[in-house]
Amino acid sequence: MREGTGRPVFSGVAIGRAYVYRHQQAELPGSCGDAAAEQKKFDEARETARAQLTELFEKTKREIGEEQAMILDVQMMMLDDLDYLEGVQDMIAGGASAAQAAHETGDAFSAAFAAMDDAYMQARSVDVKDMATRLVNILCGGKTGFSMEEPGILVAEDLTPSETVQLPKDKILAFVTRQGSSNSHTAILARIMNIPSLVQAQITLDDELDGKLMIVDGFEGHYYIEPDEATQAAMEKKRDEAQAYRQQLEAYRGKPTVSKSGRKLKLFANIGNPDDVKYVLEGDAEGVGLLRSEFLYLGRDTFPTEEELFEAYRKVVEGLQGRPVVIRTLDIGADKQVDYFGLEHEENPALGYRGIRICLTREDIFRPQLRAIYRASAFGPVCIMFPMIISVDEVRRIKAFCETIKAELTAEGIAFGEVELGIMIETPAAAVLSRELAKEVQFFSVGTNDLTQYTLAIDRQNAKLDEFYDPHHPAVLALLRMIAENAHAEGIWCGICGELGADLSLTETFLEMGYDELSVSPGRVLELRKKVCESEV
Amino acid sequence: MKEIKHVIADPLGLHARPAGLLVKEAAKNACNVTVAVNGTAVDAKRIMGVMKLAAKQGMELTLTFDGADEEAAAASMAEFLKANL
Fold this sequence. Notes:
Chain A is α/β, with parallel strands linked by helices. Chain A has 19 helices and 16 strands.
């Protein structure tokens, strides 16, 4: 038995055959001796590549989204780049084979991009390489594909966007990659697919590994190759227990969330983009308590238009089939890589120009977003929530702006529905002022991650501070109690949308404080409902 | 030869997509088109070169047109730049 570790991306246990995925790296065939023939091969390969990319572009657009598809559009343009084509031509004229020329010229361009001192351009080097690799694979026998005869665990160095699209997803039980961060393409895909995965795994990719029995423990960040009987039995038990636990929770599907003493709680889900709606329905959430808007702005080069925003919001509203959705307006700051916002580097982005502060000073960003949300409200129940509030004055300004938007839409004859306005309570200032703020809005949602970080003055990214960090710090719990009391004193509802909301050890405390709603990852809803239904509070 | 200048107003600068659009626009013309930033000039019909300029918001692009259709090319490019960059 061999074993090792990696950074877990999704909890769960997978057991299956290992499939080693490698970028085609076999020795490239030499020239046939006739430069004209090699050039013809290259030109044909380019046509095939173009056809593949066009197909992939459509598939990606359909299955994943426009954002990811744009990556492939850039690759198609690179395929037509004269600098690249001339580089290849020169090498072929100098005696190289089509495959060697495609590969080496691609490497040279990729290296040039990687050397640029602009993070966005550096990232384009992967696109050049991806495009060149595609040509090479076509020239070396048309094998760009990778097949899995039976469900198994995919082990790779790392996966490029176009590789992840081509994978036989229905057969993948887990991903294990040597590189990649928790935000890499692979990690994002794993979370969407709900499969256990490890990134930055300490593993050697040798041919020997291919086909061996492998176990991935996504709870512990551990893998085993050719496990001994005891390990295999223990892991099978763990997997079965996880399944049995999920199975047992099924009894709570479709049930109302009411404690034994009759207290009602709404269990909503936090999601990050329209495609996640299916997980809301699968998880049996009663609505969406936090739809992050950042997905609409990240991973692109220009601001989304009002139409794009509207289409995305409308897709969520319609997908939820009458369940309410709380849309949080853009909460972005200098810590996110969105070059086109032109944000200056900040020493301390958590305390900087972010969230509502950007929206209140950049009407060109705020207006299309609010118009899009109001327009989407014509299709189902919508609430809007504003992040990073610290004063009553900010809320009044926002409300006045919303009135302007509504007046504009009315004047233009555009339909919109009744929209509740609420705020995130995530700064100590907002918590302290919650009684006054409650007079201005229709609901509160407590963002416990930021509220805790700001109250304790502890940066959660800094592992050195772990010993000082207490997620159940009495100061935070006292604020939570005060916020709920103040909300109810003014007759508005309040919820929690931070990670603390899913903390089962606090569920009864939240019930007792009187919280009306908890918003958590879709996969956590059923276990929370069980907890509430079993509670005496 | 004809020359036009344009200061990039787009906050994202000349990134992949706008670079692509500019190349497509340049390729419509028969004349030679170059684009230069801070003294570095590249063929405006080639995407990788244009991207490698890494031109940012506020930088001045200098485009030159050389060939029979240079007048018309410069005029339509000026329109394009105003509308897209």
